[in-house]
Design brief:
With 333 residues, the chain is an alpha+beta fold. Helix content is 42%, strand content 22%. It is built from seven helices and eleven strands. The radius of gyration is 23 Å and the shape is globular.
Amino acid sequence: MARPEFWDDRENAEKVSKRKSELEGEIGLYDGVESALEEAGVLLELAAEADDAEVRHEVSEKFGEIETALDTAELRQLLGGEYDHSDAIVSINSGAGGTDACDWAEMLLRMYLRWAERRGFHSEVIDVQAGEEAGIRSATISIGGSYAYGHLNAEQGVHRLVRISPFDSQARRHTAFASVTAIPEIDDDVDVELDEGDLRIDTYRSSGAGGQHVNKTDSAVRITHIPTGTVVQCQNERSQHKNKATAMKVLRAQLFEISRREQQALMAEIAGEKREIGFGSQIRSYTLHPQQRVKDHRTDVEVGNVEGVLDGDLDGLIRSALLKQSGSLAVEP
């Protein structure tokens, strides 16, 4: 990176810089634990010699820090998939439940944006389709950060909400569903066959909030990959060119994921396994009435602070799911 010509190729330089940060994080984690253990050892000796309650308290705090660091290292060990280190493209779609489902999808959108903010990740809303009365029918967001896809891959599935509906004049309890998918954002050097003749590109006027601009220009872009029927769209930028570039990036990632899942299905068939790929099972329930709790059906882990979870406090649930997938018995968040 110290070479004068390093930033001549900005795209490659950014990749190298990102990789450097990842490696520094790995080394820093190890060095931090090693240093903390040495410091704790010294404090233990002092506590034994002086029989000092204050020093013992410092030792306890230090071991708490070490435990947190080791939990982070354990989680990083679980994120060993080929694309776990990648940024993620997350899609949220409302399901059964009418207006409540659209509102639920919007709540999930906020939840993941807040989760990204808590972790210091970069997030960008690529496309949002508003519901007829409230909420959203669907949304696509990009979340960039260390092992973003590895974390969000654990969130794929159907999410269920149970609450007193704010849209029911009789204040009855309703159940709503929304689905979440996550795919890795692939680099340009990953080969994805894309024939321009297989694409249908449509432009239209952006919808939703955005001022007068959204009503005057056909800046939004919708791209359909005819052979697979895959449709992506982007309307977050004022420039049609930028929206097209973003939509193409999402399309490449989706086609790559389709190919990857087809290969996984083929390998499962060859191995004689029957595995469901994609959606198909409810992974988590969020209950706001009569009791307050979030339950992950894969791990049986329950969290009483529903508001905290909906405000982006997902790390415990994600960690539990990853531990369960790895076969570990320790699934407490």
